[in-house]
Amino acid sequence: MEKLKSSLTNMVVVLVVVAVVTSGLLAVVNHVTEGPKAVKAEKTLADGIKKVMCTQDLTVTANDTITTQDEKGKDVKYIVYKVSDKAGKELGAAVKSTTLGFGGDLEVLVGFDPEGTILGYTILKHAETPGLGAKADTWFQKGQKGDVIGKSPKDKPLTVSKDGGEIDAITASTITSRAFLKAINNAYDIYKKGGK
DSSP per residue over 45-92, as a string? Predict the structure, then answer.
């Protein structure tokens, strides 16, 4: 077999062939993994709803997507998962809320009882600094320094103590703490206004 001459045309042709083959392989792998990723995302959400509602014995009776605009005019989507027990008694709702944290989007799932008291929360997605902002998944849990469980933003929004509120911010991560509390407050507003 004769060796290809080293010319610009030959190099471009080889590069294009390699790019096309690589793109095709990536597309196939992406297609093959789509199903398992969707199943995993559904399971994570179902487990999250049970966690934030503090019970395994529940049924999601409805899920409503509500779109609002933030202060900059950008569309923000919330999903309200209305929940009841197996006997049909309303337990409240789990609300998926997203805000901008320090490193990117911070997606929080918050459970509320019918009166709007926070039952629990879980972080579904974040891009916060490991060891600092990433502590939000435990910092605000029951018995921790920033405990929000059992509180309600009904009379006034939850804010960090630095801003005159009652919630201790994550040490060296006030931006993440503010974003987290904003997600909680927004979820509450959506739940009480339209998601109930």
Answer: HHHHHHHHHT-SS-EEEEEEEEEEE-TTS-EEEEEEEEEE-TT--EEE
Beta-ladder partners of 110: 95, 121
Cβ contact 129:122 at 8 Å = no
Q: Longest C-alpha distance within the chain, in Å?
A: 81
Q: Using a CB cutoff of 8 Å and minimum separation of 24, what contacts does 121-128 make?
A: 121/52, 121/148, 121/149, 121/184, 122/48, 122/51, 122/52, 124/44, 124/45, 124/48, 124/96, 125/98, 126/101, 127/101, 127/103, 128/101, 128/102, 128/103, 128/173, 128/176
| The residue to which tokens 């096309």 are assigned | 20
User: Residue 196: which pLDDT band, with cuts at 50, 70 and 90?
Assistant: very low
Asked if 52 and 119 count as a contact pair (C-beta separation under 8 A), the reply is yes
Decide: helix, strand or coil at residue 34.
Answer: helix
Q: What are phi and psi of 132, to 5 degrees?
A: -120, -90
pLDDT tens, residue by residue, 18-27: 999 999 999 9
